Amino acid sequence: MNRCFWMVGCLVMLAVLGCDNKPQQGEADTSQTKTFGPEGMNTAGMGRPADIENINPVIAVKFIGKHKGDDPKPRHVTLSMAEAQMHMPGGKFLAMDTLRIGFYVNTLDVDPAASGLGAEEAVKLRDHLKGPDFFNVKQYPTAEFDAKSIKLNEDGTGEITGTFKMLTQSQELTIPVTHNAEKKLLEAKFELDRTKFGMTYGVENVAEMVEVQISLDGSKG
């Protein structure tokens, strides 16, 4: 009887060790995800109903790259995972004084319809973008933006200055933003020179400048 239990136990161990932990088709691969910065991006306990100052806003992120020449062929890339921390003294959006955003670039996907691609073409492009020619997500699965100064005006305009970190490089950016203080919504559109972060592949055909779009909803933190 003991021999039987031993054999069953061995079979169970083999089954566990042999499991394929790779994500299924359509799932985000977060197996290589690391924490953000020296303090990490642990947002546990933030955005509690009783805490109107510390918020985890809802974030949406998109990258738009273009080809060079008369036919730019924009390619729309979305990130299905991003997280953020923000602090609003007194719960007032215009008083926001901190903002940190963590981008899980290993969750990037290509929007076929917006990019004018078929499903198979979009998957092929996605896999190429995840590779070492571009985002190299296996080695660098995350990027981050840490605001150093935030200025939001009553008229719905503003600018945020901070450090954007991606791959092995950091760059200080001043980003123009628009916002709705009452609804606690903020949108940013800016450009990054991908070659400054080591993405030098295909510069003869693909534009160096990439548009980044970020939307932030602080009402649901």
Describe it.
With 221 residues, this protein is mainly beta. The chain has a single domain (56-220), classed as Lipid/polyisoprenoid-binding, YceI-like (Lipocalin, Beta Barrel), CATH 2.40.128.110. It has three helices and eleven strands; from the N terminus they run αββββββααβββββ. An eleven-stranded antiparallel β-sheet has the order 1-4-5-7-8-9-10-11-2-3-6. A hairpin with a 2-residue loop joins strand 8 (157-166) and strand 9 (169-180). The chain is elongated. The termini are far apart. 26% of the residues are buried. Mean pLDDT is 82; it is low at 1-28, 30-40 and 43-49.
The H-level CATH homologous superfamily, spelled out, is Lipid/polyisoprenoid-binding, YceI-like
Give the CATH class: Mainly Beta
Q: What's the count of strands?
A: 11
Radius of gyration: 21 Å
Number of structurally distinct domains: 1
- What is the strand content? 35-45%
Low-confidence stretches: 1-28, 30-40, 43-49
Could you report the average pLDDT, rounded to the nearest whole number?
82
How would you spell out the order of helices and strands?
HEEEEEEHHEEEEE
Main pleated sheet: 11 strands, antiparallel
Q: Largest beta sheet: what is the strand line-up?
A: 1-4-5-7-8-9-10-11-2-3-6
Kindly report the CATH topology.
Lipocalin
- Spatial gap, N to C terminus: 57 Å
* Tally of individual helices: 3
- Approximately how much helix is present in the residues? 10-25%
From the 3D coordinates, which CATH architecture would you assign? Beta Barrel
Shape: elongated
Q: Helix- and strand-based class?
A: mainly beta
